[in-house]
Amino acid sequence: MLFLVTAGPTREPIDPVRYLSNRSSGKMGYAIAAAALARGHGVVLVTGPVAIPPPPGARVVSVETAREMHAAVAAEIAAADVAVFCAAVSDYRPAEAAAGKIKKDGAELVLRLVENPDILGDTRSVFGYGGVLVGFAAETGSMERHALDKLRRKGCDLIVANDVSRSDIAFDQDDNEVLVLDRAGGRAWLPRAPKAEIARALVARIETVAPG
Ligand code: PMT
């Protein structure tokens, strides 16, 4: 099967040298790409800027902004059998990026933000129901309730929820601990483990859902 995996953060420019972003390291998404490759699948890795090397064998599409990631996913999704959205996409971007470096002038600086496209949310309608759509949910409270809401709203087959208020897992950590929910009401808890191990379990779970 061909896996499309999104990973890493997006960067939303404020001016030529500053941006809005988040602490995603890409480790979770890259581990999923590596686990899929190890199982003999093809992988297209659509990645925001990270400091780790991609797994050998993945076809890498590098992007910076949410809108670039949206366009890259739209271009690649038709060929994919499985799409895993692990990227931490900025929900907002500055309404406009200043052409020159913003100078300090002693006054308050107000940034106006506008919403970015919901890449995962826009995918179900173009992916069709043959493909397996896997979302992530980064939550800081009421994790299961919010993850279930995202599973339904975004038309996912599976959603992988993690508690991003914890400092020992998830963002920029080597370990994760996740709750996997599916459309049929199934739930599986994967206790804290290295991301490579969590990724192997997720790919195995996806293989049971995927047709053929
Ligand atoms: O990269 P690491 O340091 O290893 O950290 C891993 C992680 C914490 C980033 C990862 O495990 C994770 O939780 N990824 C999802 C982060 C996120 O943006 O979650 P969310 O609950 O805000 O978004 C829900 C889903 O919609 C996600 O699949 C996200 O990729 C997707 N999304 C969100 C916003 C948007 N504009 N477009 C999207 O596609």
How does this model look, in words?
The chain is of the alpha/beta class. The chain has one domain: 3-Layer(aba) Sandwich (Rossmann fold), CATH 3.40.50.10300. The chain is 25% helix and 30% strand. The strands form 3 sheets. It has an 8-stranded mixed sheet with strand order 5-4-1-6-9-10-11-12, sandwiched between helices. A two-stranded antiparallel ribbon has the order 2-3. A two-stranded antiparallel ribbon has the order 7-8. The longest helix is centred in the last third of the chain and has 15 residues, at 195-209. It starts with a strand and ends with a helix. The model has no long low-confidence stretch (mean pLDDT 96). The structure holds ligand PMT. Ligand PMT binds at residues 6, 24-29, 66, 85-89, 91, 116, 118-120, 135-138, 150, 162, 164, 170-172.
What is this structure, in a nutshell?
It is built from five helices and twelve strands. The chain has 212 residues and is an alpha/beta fold. The chain is globular and about 60 Å long.
Number of helices: 5
Give the SSE order as H and E letters.
EEEHEEHEEEHEHEEEH
Indicate the CATH class: Alpha Beta
Q: Low-confidence parts lasting 5 or more residues at pLDDT below 50?
A: none
What is the CA-atom radius of gyration, in angstroms? 17 Å
Question: Main traits of this protein?
Answer:
Rossmann fold, binds ligand PMT, 212 residues, 5 helices, alpha/beta, eight-stranded mixed β-sheet, two-stranded antiparallel sheet, 25% helix
